[in-house]
Amino acid sequence: MNKVLEVKNITKSFGKIDVLKGVSFSIDQGEIFGFLGRNGAGKSTLINILTGVIHQTNGGFQILGGSLDKVKGKIGVFPDVDNFYADWSANQHLKFFAKVQKLKIQQKEIDEKLALVGLLKDKGKKVKNFSFGMKKKLGVAQALINNPEFIILDEPTSGLDAESAIHMRELVNKLAAQGKTIFITSHNLNELEILSNRIAILKDGQISVIGTMEELRVEAQNKIQVEITLNRPLKKEDLATIDLPPHQINKQNLRISVKQQEEIGNCIRQLVLKGYNIYSVIQQEKTLEDIFLQNEVAH
Q1: How many CB atoms lie within 10 A of CB 277?
Q2: Confidence category of residue 299, pLDDT binned at 50, 70, 90
Q3: CB atoms within 10 A of CB 240
Q4: What single DSSP character describes residue 66?
Q5: What pLDDT score does 211 carry?
Q6: Which end of the chain is more exposed for a tag (fewer CB within 10 A), N or C?
Q7: Which of 3.30.300.20, 3.40.50.300, 3.20.20.370, 3.30.750.24 is the CATH number of 3-211?
């Protein structure tokens, strides 16, 4: 698998403040890579380094096997939507950005980009009449104007309504299926969990965990959470005679926390012997939000 992005021990300091403290990771071609961290963790600083806005203090990176100045034309970056010109239309913006990048592009190609993000019918409307969500869509269209191989999307769905957010996720998946590589950040943890092939969590300027959701769950899963639904609520007298692991009870729903799978079977056997019917047994997987919060409180 070709490495589209290779980040090697990047550090960044502002005066005496160390914002990035040796960040290293790589992204494969066609991968959707989720990048997560609380405000102040260093996400924006790293993105600014990768896009050439600022320079790292130490370390380095390669995109598509080369330095940034050699591959800029193959990179698409989601812009700050507050910098769009209020009196320009969506169509005028894309024509302008194509000209800035010295692209020979036809109106048909601009229309295709606008259609991709759902703005074709609004291409003549001035941006000052756009909602925040529409500006986000225009930003994604701008990032795609040069048909890039590597795309950086910073919070692309924030401010979008539910339907538009779903459309955006479908677009990201479609781009990845075409072999494009996506680096995406979002405060919507459920969205990153659904979209990303792998996820990195940045904490205090360092990568604290990285991997697929399955790998992150294994690393974070020191206990197994299981929801058992019974045919009737547990009686107090039965609870006194059943050896249950740490648990919570809500009527006929019993949630237990165990370290080994064998403990689940032992719990079920005791319940059946007491005359309870088991309607369902559901093992709860940790969500990205669970993992993120656990990571934030870890020392």
Answers
A1: 11
A2: very low
A3: 7
A4: B
A5: 92
A6: C
A7: 3.40.50.300
